[in-house]
Amino acid sequence: MPPLEVRHLEKTKRFGFHLKRLREGKGLSQQALADIANIGKTTVLRIENGRQSPTLEMLFSICEALEVPIVELMDYER
User: Fold this and answer.
1) Mean of the per-residue pLDDT values for the chain?
2) How many CA atoms lie within 13 A of 35 on its CB side?
3) The model's pTM
């Protein structure tokens, strides 16, 4: 089994890819999502690339911006 840090990185990347798919499915650019969620565009980019984990507050803002329940946002393993 890979070390915990590697497993966390893999999950972070899968979450970011899922977020990108949801965002694109809503027809939003990274900038539009950032503006609606009141977070920086660079933050959206880093989350989507798996280089940053969102805070709980960011997750709630992203859910509101994408108009999806948090369970849908967190269902990134399917």
Assistant:
1) 92
2) 5
3) 0.89
